[in-house]
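Hi Prof. W.,

I finally got the Flagellar hook protein FlgE prediction working! I wasn't sure whether to trim anything, so I left the full sequence exactly as given:
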Amino acid sequence: MGLSASMWTSVSGLLAHGNKMNLVGNNIANVSTIGFKSQRMDFNDYLYMSGSSASGPTQIGAGVSTYAVLGDYSQGALETTNSGTDLAIDGNGYFGVRKTGSDQKYYTRAGDFFFDKERKLVNPEGMVVQGWKVENDKALTFSSGATNLGTGTSSESSYVGSGSPTDIVLSSWNLPPQQTTNVSFTMGLTNDGNGDKTTSAGSPLTALFDLWDATSNPPIAKDAFSAKSEIKVYDEGGNAHQLSVYYDQVATSKEGTNGSTAYTIEGLPAGYTVYEYLVTIPPSEDNRSFGGEGYDEATNTWTRDPTKFYDDPTTGTNKQAGVLMSGQLIFNASGQLVNQTAYTFGATGTPAANDQYAGSPDSKESWQPTKLSSNGLPVFTANFTGQPLANSVSETMTTTGTTTPFSQAQNYIMELDLGLKNIGSPAWTNPTATTIKTDAQGNPVDAGGNALGVSKYGYYNLATGFYGKDAAGHDLLADDKGFYYMNGAEKIYGTINVNGGTPNVAYDDTTSSYYFTDTTVTPNAKCYDVTVDGGGTTHPAYSDADGDYYNGTVPQAGGGTTNGKIYGTFDDGGTPRLVQHDATGYFYIDGADARQAVTNFDKIATSKVKPDTYVAIDNTTRVAPDYETKANSLDSLKTQLVADGVTAEGNPKYKAVVNFATNAASMTTTERQEGASAANSKTSVTQNATQDGYASGTLSDVRIDTSGIIYGVYSNGTTLPLYQITMYDFQNNQGLWRDGGNLFSSTNDSGEPRIGVAGDNGFGTTKAYNIEQSNVDMSREFVQMITTQRGFQANSKGITTVDTMLETVIGMKR
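And this is what came out:
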């Protein structure tokens, strides 16, 4: 290899070190550039020329070249600012920006963003930041079947937005009103048995519903419930309304005033706690109506005018105006919420399109298991603004020129979240219930349609008072002494075995005693006592001045017998003698037919004719109510009398029962949410209350959290998520192309970007009020500058040295 080659070797060193000095200079120049990532240059030996030597083949290097320029993508220090839209990434990832009018995306760590006049979030070059839009328009739909909500151990997703990444552009500086679609309460209720403030023996599970009276002020007394939660909700115009939920514990068994059991709730495991709840608004704000027919949207008219819940010009205010939902909450022995019922007005009705539900709100049959939302929560309609067909979730309507009915009510429903969702299909157990038939006045009726009353002896015909018939066909009545039938003016309660006969037992109101008619004496006598003689025979017993006696055949002195009064017996040497009485005193006739005076003898023992000493009438053909199977409703939850054995006297006993398992429409498959309501507190308290509606407002501030969610803060006090900033990352950062302006673009070497959100799946978090500084290390760059300079100088010496050597060679010619 010649000397000239040595010169070119040094030239390659000059070129390489010159390039490196340019890179070091660029790093130092960008020491204050936000988000800048420094570079370093690596050299490699350029090429080798082969040669030979005494020891064998040789290779002699011919210079150096730039081998690689590698970026340092480590994070720079964070610098605080005064702008909430200044963003830094604490960790891995890039922001994405797009140039207006182009589909080309760029990636940057420089987060000096701001909203321009067109409400776009841009960088200083006007490129729009990319993110996912968050939909805040709340529109509930009815569930069409089972709701897939997981397994009960829910995990919050880091993704808030939806769709594909797009330009972050605020739709408006103003916020339109949003009607409330979700109301959530976390209740801490007691389970000490002292929370039952309102009781109804006839319908204990609907006591609050029955007590509510919209014509009173307040509609429900302050001491009639054990807990209450309140929250403001909003209609579609942004107007606020007070929504109140009342809670009252339902004792699973209640004693009556006389110590008897007033009712028992069956069908629940031991230790369970039941609460009734009632969702309400002020009655004056209830603009629902019912019974309207033939609504014409084009003319806003009806073929039959509706009746208003509140202040109807004809019927006045319905008692249930203001009630939106009624139901029960079921807690297990640990106080966990395990089931729920929910009834709303006309929920399972089938009115024709453009007709309202026809049932009256004050009839509990009109309150049926409600529909569920697509979120698995029970819904109700408030209809604050008086929409014609949004009074019940069952109503539908058609618009002008169409024939397909749709649900107007679906646009105005709210879902109630107390911590339990239904994930099964159908929504409710027991869509039908077997209940006692009733007439228009609510009285039970028998198979013939006759109205029935109820007493402790069971059902009776209201018109006749008859409970049924005994074996002899007598029509039976009843009073506090038991069943009886009328025999003329006498009340016959049963029979008694006496003298081999079975005379009827009646009652004497004058003496307050039972009696039977003794036909063995003339004239017939009312007998109030019985006795048993030594032979075990029962006799009618009477009393006179000489004592208690019964009539019988007695011996006479000197022989013969006669009919006389027997006061007892005397033991005459082992032979019982009948004791009689005359003017001289008590005596008996001995075996010689002689009269023997006696003072001490066994007097007869009498017992009053009482209910436990006679055979009571058997009500062999009892009056019974007729049963029917019909759609489940609040009316299905009333108590029903069921046979519960007989008394000691043989009279039937009845117990008042609500069978929750068969007559309550509870959720089929439940999923308890984290933070669900519970019944294990010492005092009842509302632990959390939220709703998603709001009035109109204007944007007053923007906040960005560590997940990259951009929140709008509005003048109405509402804070809403608007966008979530999209994060990008690459498998090979070294393959990114630097476009200047703190921008990178992807190449085949970098690969397609991986997309995600801040704080999730390896992406760093976003820091508002911060920007990332350049990661250039000044001390390192100065060292690189010095070594590069020395390398350049050394290579220049190589050139001058070779030049001197060449000059020597040229001088050899002289």
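Residues 182-432+665-688 form one domain. Does that look reasonable to you?

Thanks,
D.
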